[in-house]
């Protein structure tokens, strides 16, 4: 995680609205009132399930889609109707879109060629850009002769060769295998930090978003669900959608049943009882309470804690940790991830045995009920 | 038992295939063989090899003696070939440019009645030649345009644009539109994108369409027959005329030469296609 200092925004989007016409004829909103600004050296990720509007938003910024309503500013200039080739923005496409009839060198130098940069200068800057992505010396190859990972790097070099103000990345890692993807994630992050160029990265992979971003924009149904740093999004999701989409979570529909001096009791719809610090909760108030699987432990915590009790239904070794499915006495299903490095507690995790899952009271995250 | 049946089946299939290809190619092979037959009376009776018919085609002296009729016919033949080449080259140039741009317009822009225009582009190809020929004749006569090379060129273009359109459209359909977006994204104007990205990638289709147009124009008889004037006899029309006056052995020689020319053009087309990536989409995904 890096500490990010905000400077003047390179992109500002205000009240963006974009509709598509469905095959049946009616209009479907792809963007429904989006407000967003991206700082000049910021790594922002647009995260959401497919059809959430993230790719549309990216294509609005790159100029391949026009807004129906709202405003788009790039470097403080209104760009709503400026054609794509006149915007100081480059894109790394999901399919890489390398020009198959040109050499790697000509691909990388394309943006320079278009601007009329001389051949000699072009050659040095192509070499620099390829060096930057670790592909020095491959100028003469054709894209078809490269592996998927190498093509990915060529696409990146091509988009960075003339240092655009903003780089857009449309799920660029989705075609790579897991290991390559993870090393590319770190490399991209490092590259962005070194170049100081704003990156807007689109993905549906929440792990990828958490790993790489300064800020994450969670989108669903054309609306922004939450904007925040990875830890903010993970620890304090704004609503049930974000809680469910980012990481695993146990969500309880609860109402405040009693308030003590410094704690409050929350009664779930099924009858499970949760305890949280008092804060400013009113008795009768309806809420959603969230606990991450890794926030459970087998023994009473040092801090003030409470437990859910039930029977183990299933225990899976998921590598490093154990994933335990617990059915509470009231019938709710609770998922917990238990670390048992010494393998001392295995007998307690046997399916069928009774188990108490403890949590610290202040680990419970409360989401105010918002009825649409 | 099973293997016996399988062997029998394979044998039958092989025999059938052989018969099919004999049926297809034997007449053509006979024409080539008899074009070298020296028998001047009956061309179906082999009388020893000779190049006389080729010589006579080009007006060279041959064992038949230099009778007036042969010299005349060879002059007419060469004139007909020249007319055909002029028409085919003009038609190819016009229909290639027009067909390519129509394919681009229909593939890259969204507009009202798009599907309708696409159908309109296919129609001339499906139309019976005889209908097109009569329609064109009536049209040219109606507007008072004299029949000649110009009317044939216009007539050929009406349906050859469709062929080019079809071939180039197929190529465009296999091209990833993201490549053009990537070009624009990197700052290239639409003109630059066309010159550096779109055109090189569809060029095999454009050349293929041009070769097809050339061959069809050289070969067309029915439509040309209706709209050619007295001074604009094309090669197919001339050959047709020769046959009506009785089949002469030179026809075998002409057919053989046309066959060789077609093979060369087809070979060039195939070579050009093999040099380019088959579809650009495969390449970008690798």
Automatic annotation (TrEMBL), chain A:
Catalytic reactions of this protein: ATP + H2O + polyamine-[polyamine-binding protein]Side 1 = ADP + phosphate + polyamineSide 2 + [polyamine-binding protein]Side 1
Keywords: ATP-binding, Cell membrane, Membrane, Nucleotide-binding, Translocase, Transport
Domain ABC transporter: 11-246
Enzyme Commission number(s) of this protein: 7.6.2.11
Gene3D superfamilies linked: 2.40.50.100, P-loop containing nucleotide triphosphate hydrolases (3.40.50.300)
Pfam families from the UniProt entry: ABC_tran (PF00005), TOBE_2 (PF08402)
GO molecular function: ABC-type polyamine transporter activity; ATP binding; ATP hydrolysis activity
Domain of life, per lineage: Bacteria
Keyword Membrane: yes
Gene Ontology CC terms: ATP-binding cassette (ABC) transporter complex
Role noted for this protein: Part of the ABC transporter complex PotABCD involved in spermidine/putrescine import. Responsible for energy coupling to the transport system.
Subunit structure: The complex is composed of two ATP-binding proteins (PotA), two transmembrane proteins (PotB and PotC) and a solute-binding protein (PotD).
Family named by the database record: Belongs to the ABC transporter superfamily. Spermidine/putrescine importer (TC 3.A.1.11.1) family.
Designated name of the protein: Spermidine/putrescine import ATP-binding protein PotA
TrEMBL record, chain B:
Chief location category: membrane
Domain ABC transmembrane type-1: 81-269
Keyword terms: Cell membrane, Membrane, Transmembrane, Transmembrane helix, Transport
Protein's membrane topology: Multi-pass membrane protein
Alphabetical list of Gene3D superfamilies matching this protein: MetI-like
Spans traversing the lipid bilayer: 12-36, 85-107, 119-144, 150-168, 197-216, 222-241, 253-272
Assigned GO CC terms: plasma membrane
Subcellular location: Cell membrane
Pfam families according to UniProt: BPD_transp_1 (PF00528)
Protein name: Spermidine/putrescine transport system permease protein
